[in-house]
Amino acid sequence: MSKKLTLSLNKKVIEKAKEYAKNNNTSLSKLIESYLGTLTNKHIDDKEITPLVESLSGVVDLPAGYDEKEAYTAHLSEKYK
């Protein structure tokens, strides 16, 4: 469920953030939502996610039921035919 939020930010920060979002094919709202979600995530994971990997999160949309292991196996089978 989405809810509207009003923020007051420095004009230059807003302009740079909009440009960043545009260059990364996302909306400013989604960018801020992702950032705030990361900040407020209370789940402690054994593996630390690097900032680069975190920035790539959500970049690829895979179809429902996509099996990564099966796809990789098929890739290797094709590669080493």
**In percent, how helical is the residue content?**
40-55%
Sheet with the most strands, sense and barrel status: none
Radius of gyration: 18 Å
Structural class: mainly alpha
Mean of all residue-level pLDDT scores: 87
Total number of helical segments?
4
Beta-strand segment tally = 0
Strand content: under 5%
End-to-end Cα distance: 48 Å
Listing every helix as H and every strand as E from the N terminus to the C terminus, the arrangement reads HHHH
What shape does the CA trace take? elongated
Compact summary:
The chain has 81 residues and is mainly alpha-helical. It has helices at residues 11-23, 28-40, 51-56, 68-79.
Layout of secondary structure:
Elements: H1 11-23, H2 28-40, H3 51-56, H4 68-79
Note the main attributes of this structure.
elongated; 4 helices
What does the model show?
This protein is mostly helical and 81 residues long. Helix content is 54%, strand content 0%. It has helices spanning 11-23, 28-40, 51-56, 68-79. It is elongated.
